[in-house]
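Recap quiz, item 2
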Amino acid sequence: MKNSIPEVRGFFQRDRTWHPPSFAPGYRSTVVRSPRYAPISFPNTLSEVTGPVFGHSMLGELDNDLTVNYAKPGESAIGPRIVVYGRVLDENGRPVPNTLVEIWQANAGGRYRHKKDTYLAPLDPNFGGCGRTVTDEEGRYWFRTIQPGAYPWPNGVNDWRPAHIHFSVFGPGFVQRLISQFYFEGDPMIWKCPIVRTIPDERAIERLIAKLDMDATVPFDSRAYKFDIVLRGSNSTLFENRKEGN
Amino acid sequence: MVQELFRLKETPSQTAGPYVHIGLTPNFLGIEGIYPSDLGSEMINENTKGERIDVKVRVFDGTGTPLRDVLVEIWQADANGIYNSPNDPRGNADPNFMGWGRKPADMETGEMVFRTIKPGRVPFNDGRLQAPHINFFIAARGINLALQTRMYFGDEEEANKQDPVLTRIEHQNRVPTLIAPREGNTYKFDIYLQGEKETIFFDL
Ligand SMILES: [Fe+3]
């Protein structure tokens, strides 16, 4: 027997106490949608460590600019203009390059362009609400958008979501796939939100709050918020210099 | 003080919410003109190798109601059991098959149909072959951390009986929750989030 590291080296075990539990009755929709049995684990195989690849070439020029990607020519979405930027890293602190990041959000009044959203705030004819980009070689990404509004939602009789942007990230392995939401520094609504509060650890919640970055602000154009995303790391990168993606 | 590991914590998950379509399948919703088509809506073309199959999926909540706002992604090997991914060291995957699909539930029936090919067998870490399977990622309102599961094929009884994953499951009476029966070229995979028929979910 060779004393070598096995061929498929998996991702670090997910810390499920850091994530919100599936059953979190303060967020009422979880009650009938949460599995009751414990999930089952086995070592990562090729099925888990592989994942789809999306190239930069599939991107349209306006895909990461939500202020104009749905707007009529010469017009743009209404609302506070912001740039959201950051890096996608893994738990080892290594950049995750060439990975797809997708976002969606309500408009500045807190209204979604969706059949099921009946909130009385009006739609913005120049705002669709989605964008996407692919990280560069150093794991960096950026979007231009408008800051979304808070909105009421059916849970308790008077529950409101803090301003937030939904995001979806891939990473090279399918079990790194992550969907979450980020919030904005200083918003007092964050700590009142039943969805935010499904996360038990306050430090974990803070990891979802984008920080105002005046140094990255584009003067007379857009304020900037920095938001870094961390995907699961694998032990395959610990012992050698091979790049992530193996 | 001992040294630090300097490891980062994974970004915590939050639900995809009821409006996930805006971000991930905007054309399905009628938000047109931003992306030419919804990513992952077509998995095969005429040159893709392998047996054409339909995978018909529904996801049920604890009351037995199908989720009409769920989004499901699947990831699978090609007809030879090779993943189209740089992380598959064997390489040579079918260039006409990406292996990834994404579908929103029908807003009335809750059904999703993936038109794909039957995957080949992929080795387990000890070299044994796994039975053909498709990897699932399930996100929706009320699901705080997207669920992971696998679908196996009802007409692969022999392979399923020896599958290294299925055979290690303690409660063998739950294994059928992962096996989709075949009817013609269609496999029907009903996923139950709760209740007597609760599907096996994985923590991988
Ligand atoms: Fe939202």
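Chain A has one domain: 13-32+45-230.
Chain A touches chain B through 90 residues (CB under 8 Å).
End of item.
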